[in-house]
Amino acid sequence: MRPEITVVRLGHRQQRDKRITSHLGLTARAMGASHFVLCGDDDEKVLDTLADVTETFGGQFTAEYQGKPLGYLRHFAKQGGQIVHLTMYGEDFESATPKIPTDAPIAVVVGGAKVPGEIYKLAKYNIAVGHQPHSEVAALALFMSELMGGVAGAEQFPGARLEVKPHPSGKVVIDHEEDSDTSQ
Ligand code: SAM
Description:
By secondary structure, the protein is an alpha/beta fold.
């Protein structure tokens, strides 16, 4: 069963993290998450980017800002959701991921600057993608691939205006509004 996933980005800094937080949201969407929660600085540009990409490339992905991530996560857990925190200090992802039940919503929390200690306790699973420090985008992609069994397929992005057709040597994009095929 494909679980319903919300990715929670803690500690966003508008100037320093604008590209990486957008990439994190885009990766969440491309890997099959349905919702993205931005915490830290409120940054409309990140939310707008995610909305624009979803409008163009389809799917039901939504994004919002939350000023109080701990309250949001406590509420999420009270409603029966499970919290997974990605951290280099956690359990190995290959052995820990199969233990996560997929029949309840899952919030995947990734850090930015300093992660509050309470997150480690709130999380039912603290999961490491290797035990070296690297990137939240890399950690999210590898963890979600393990959890979802790969990258989300085209069928998970209904209503797309632009649809990319795989091609070995060029760009093939179908524009469903123009009903045209742009090959290069
Ligand atoms: N200096 C920061 C700190 O105080 O934690 C490190 C931030 S790190 C670039 C940002 C986030 O990437 C972490 O909070 C974690 O969610 C994720 N991350 C980085 N390396 C990871 C790893 N090996 N396994 C799982 N998650 C990782």
